[in-house]
Amino acid sequence: MNWRHGIGGLICVCFLLILPTLAYAESPAPSLDELNSRVADLEDHRELLKEIGEEVKNYREHLQAEMTRFQDLVQKERDSFFTLFQFLTGTLTVLLGVAGYIVYYNIGQTKADLKKQMEVELDQTKKELHREFQQRLEEEKELLEKQMQEELESALQGYHRDLEQLRKQMEEQYLHTLEQFTRDVGQDLDALKKNIENEKTFTSSRIWVTGPEAEIEKMKTDEVDLISRRGIKSIEVKTFDRDQLKQALENNEIDILIYRYQPANGRLDQDLISIAKLLVERNEEVPLIVYGTNLKDVEMSVLGKYKFFTISNFRMTLISNIFSLAYAFNKQSNL
User: Does residue 220 share a domain with residue 186?
Assistant: First the structure.
């Protein structure tokens, strides 16, 4: 039967395994190379044993299948087969024990040499690993320093770029603010200069007050004092004299001419008419303020020929007219 041929083959294999062991036992003390060779042979035998074990395992599975299939046929032979199988297992165990003892004995002789060789190789491995570690550490350090340097340079470039942009923005903002401030200051200075010029124009205006003596004497302590306290200092108060007035006009000494009008009972104010005619004859542009009320038609007709006259009925109207005319008819500011 097939299982019997398998058992016979297994016995032959075991016998072949024992022969090299017996040969090794009879030989003299081997050298290290021979031991290494024998260890290699034992490794080959171990692989062979593994293959035999696998074959036995496969064979056992096959045997169990055959036993299942032909259970009725082999029932009588099971006991003898089991006995034979135990014998073979015991024999194999003994053989493996002998082989293990031989291997242990051979390896024990080279244990010191192997230990020494392993220590040397281990020391070399340690040195090699240490050297590689140091080299890798240096490489990592250089790489890290390079990366840090690149990142630092990039950060510095970004910082300088942002700083330059901020500087330009600040300069633009500063220039814009300075220009705006300069414009504002210039406008304020222009306005201030204009106000100063206006103030100078107003305060430097030359006012000539004339009329009947009694009336202008009253004005000295009343209207003239009020005008003077408003800043106008050049005020001439004179009794009407045509020649004197004409000379003053010729010398451009009058910016505003004020005549104090006092109506007479049924009579025309010849001084007022004379002043109006004189101004018309000279084609003057000196503003004439007639300070009074109830002018007659004839007087108004004569005054109407002069384009630069106005009437102030009250004190406040007089002050208001003086303020307005002082800015427009100051001859010194128009020079």
Answer: no
